[in-house]
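Protocol step 4 of 6: structure prediction from sequence.
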Amino acid sequence: MKNFADSVKKFIVSEDGPTAVEYAVMMALIIVVCIGTVTSIGTNAKAKFEEVKTALS
């Protein structure tokens, strides 16, 4: 049981856990920004194609 308690204590004190969480949060934010950017570009492209279609008609 003492061995388990020591391993839990080492895990809590270790810097690896919080660093991994910070990287995961940064990655999630980057993904959200990328999705928003692609959506915005897609919407603008669709509007431009509709404008060109209307002009050619």
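Step 5 (inspection) to follow. The radius of gyration is 24 Å.
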